[in-house]
Amino acid sequence: MLTLESITAGYGELTVLSDLDITLAKGETVCLIGPNGAGKSTVLRVVAGQLYPTGGRVLYNESDVSGFGCQKKISMGILFVPQGRNVFPSLSILENLHLSRVFISEEQFRERLEDVFLTFPWMREKLQNSAGSLSGGLRQMLALSRILLLRPQLVLLDEPSLGLSPLVVDEVFQIISDLNSKEISFLLVEQNARKGLSVAHRGYVLESGRNRLTGSGNSLLDDPEVQKLYLGG
User: Fold this and answer.
1) Most exposed among 76, 128, 217, 219, judged by the fewest C-beta atoms under 10 Å?
2) Gap between the Cα atoms of 16 and 191, Å rounded
3) What is the pTM of this model?
4) What percent of the chain has pLDDT over 70?
């Protein structure tokens, strides 16, 4: 589904990614781990169309989408949930969900909203509550529900566990696994390497914008180097 071929990218004169290769098959969850500054979030921005590579190619369903921006990527089923401020706290839950109406009709919105309630049943009774009144975990679920309205094929998630309690983290990752079982693919950046790799089919360890290690989620969890550097082993 997704191939990053020899990607070089950065900000101005600062090169962050250098000759990076990543692949993701349809239906997979792939997790990127590594130290701060390794380029993990930059990978997501390149795939999302927020940042254009200066070298290499981004292939999506075998088409070169390297020069496509965010709006075009969204229309192709690539949705990005950024780190941190991913909802509008001054708006109600319903108003946050209505932002998807930029891309779909009112009829589609109403039909798909019922599907969202199946995944997040708590939301039906809280539609008029402000998003700012929600806990961090519920805000993350609201961000996920907003993109579900657009029927994504590939979801890019940047640090979904950031600032959440362990119990809420478990709930968020269970939702990711459930959605993945419905054939939604995920490219995930996660500082909680143990949790990220536990739901991933495959993972990549990035360092200084390059691949350091790659393998299945389980094999990376068992790797002594990964355990020492990222799992506290």
Assistant:
1) 128
2) 18
3) 0.91
4) 99
